[in-house]
Amino acid sequence: MRATAIAQPNIALVKYWGKADILRNLPAVGSLSITLDALTTTMTVDLQGAGRADELILNGQINHKIMPRVSACLDRLLGKNRGPAAIRSECNFPIAAGLASSAAAFAALVVATNAAADLSLDKLSLARAAGAASGSAARSLYGGFVELSVTPEDIAVESVVEENAWPLDVIVAVNAHGPKAMSSGEAMQLSAQTSPFYDRWVKSQDVDLAAARTAVLERDFSKLAEVSEHSCLKMHSVMWGSRPPVVYWNAATIACMESVRQMQCDGLDVFFTVDAGPQVKVICLPEIADEVHSIVRGTDGVLSTMRTALGQGARVVGDG
Ligand code: 2P0
Description:
The protein is of the alpha+beta class. It is built from 9 helices and 16 strands.
């Protein structure tokens, strides 16, 4: 009745922004991501260890904020007549700051719960349960380059290319500490309701997804760089066009983009992406990662950096 799982965040190269169905948390668009390796969430789910209600201890502290979504996810997997669960989670990177901590958390939660309750659910069912809690979490069940597609009924997720089949490195520039001002879910709704660019964003997604998928299958770094930066800047344009505007960037975000532009001018195979926070993720070939890391670390306003390869999907690591 107890199991531990480990999961890593993923970073979308072709972004998810907007919901087709808010109640079911069904995305309005497909997405394509890379699962990271060195950033980890390790979560133990104990289905008999709680008192009268579900408990979540995150990095040693009781967490109430994410609890309703955690409980809803457990209800979906175990049914509403289940007993309370005790959950302990350790995360080695900043949470709620645009580093996909919720993706890693819900991926770990569904995998650990599946093992603790001996449910024997397949990976896609677990991805759908994680995605119902947090859209991007469905992708962290899979390793390497992952594509999420949306059908009228539900989502489908698959690994397009495994993590070892095309090794890339990611340098994360941490440009602010502390949680973001507006959650992704709220910001997506605001964009859908008020941004004049939202409909166009949804309609143009399949073209970007096809281009990115082909680039990954052909290991075409330049093509992947172009479509990824386009998707990122287009998503942020949708946000900036919302009323009130949703701006997750700070000065260091732009300084990092300028550093990447300079590296590209100097002939380096590198590109950036930015999510719902000021952090910048810089993707490059492993052979130039030392050089890229040192340039990103030295960029004005960057507080700290993390470096990671691509990693595998969420998995069970033990029964305690
Ligand atoms: C993504 N993001 O594709 C996009 C890009 C942020 C920017 O998915 O409301 O936490 O829980 O489904 O998954 C972050 O949003 O949103 C996200 P919900 P989620 O990675």
